[in-house]
Design a protein that fits this description.
The protein has helices at about 1-5, 10-25, 30-40, 45-55, 75-85. With about 90 residues, the chain is mostly helical. Helix 3 (about 30-40) packs antiparallel against helix 4 (about 45-55). It starts with a helix and ends with a helix.
């Protein structure tokens, strides 16, 4: 996340690819992948991963409503729908 936000997109994409590769072999929280997608400006992919995190019952999802990282998508219809599904 920090790499992408600081303009180091190439390094952030490498980190994302590493996470995606690792997720094929072991558990990697989808919310971590979502955060990287969001930082890279890939909103729809980020929201896709949040849906997966919701299905996985990731405890970090409870912070969606207050975590500043998600401020830029708070008005997105899919984000709003997800928050409602979570009863937040």
């Amino acid at each position: 996340y920090a790499l992408a936000r600081s303009g180091k997109e190439r390094e952030a994409r490498i980190a994302l690819n590493d996470l995606l590769a690792a997720s094929r072999e072991r558990y990697v929280p989808a919310i971590n992948i979502a955060t990287l997608h969001l930082a890279l400006g890939e909103t729809e992919k980020a929201l896709d991963q949040l849906e997966i995190a919701f299905e996985q019952k990731d405890t970090w999802m409870t912070f969606l409503k207050v975590e500043p990282i998600w401020d830029e998508v708070r008005g997105h219809p899919r984000f709003i729908k997800l928050i409602r599904r979570m009863n937040l």
